[in-house]
Amino acid sequence: MSAPAAAAPLGPVERAALLGVARAAVRARLGLGGAPALPAEGPLAAPGGAFVTLRVRGELRGCLGSFAPRGSLAATVAALAAGAATEDPRFPPLRPEELDDLDLHVSIVAPRRPMRDPSELALGRDGVVVELGWHRGALLPQVAVEEGWDAKTFLERTCLKAGLPPGAWRDPQAKVELFAAEEVGPERLDPARPGM
């Protein structure tokens, strides 16, 4: 189970509202509704970093994230959801006809902390960031669990995501950091439901 990213995890109302913001942002980006209403107070109005993952029929369709808040948590999630739908360079833009099979998943990320030894990496709790030179890659905590990886494989796959050789995390110049994430979703996107 993932550790919460904030002092207290979001309650069910805030979790539903955050998914509603993401859903409305995707619909708006596809020209199917207006921009999401963003809360002016409460936990969703506080600054926060996040990742938004989109899957169609279980297959990854887009994922964007930022450790640096883009304003409030809700604003960050809205921007990332819209971007994941149309700007992830690995995939063509999402099409309206895909909404019937679209699942939304939000990961609220905690601040990163240095990894001094691989034994500090707790699978299912920690995500990984590897930076070396101009290369940087990050994988969310649930990826290792979903793929059945051990800690070494998780570190190697994060290096590959960064465009580095698998063992680059051992390089003395590499910066390896861990982070916790509070998972919200996944939620199936109902194309008829406009969101917030």
Automatic annotation (TrEMBL):
Domain AMMECR1: 5-195
SUPFAM superfamilies hit by this protein: AMMECR1-like (SSF143447)
Domain of life (superkingdom): Bacteria
Classification via PANTHER family: AMME SYNDROME CANDIDATE GENE 1 PROTEIN, AMMECR1 HOMOLOG
Protein name, per record: AMMECR1 domain-containing protein
Organism of derivation: Anaeromyxobacter diazotrophicus
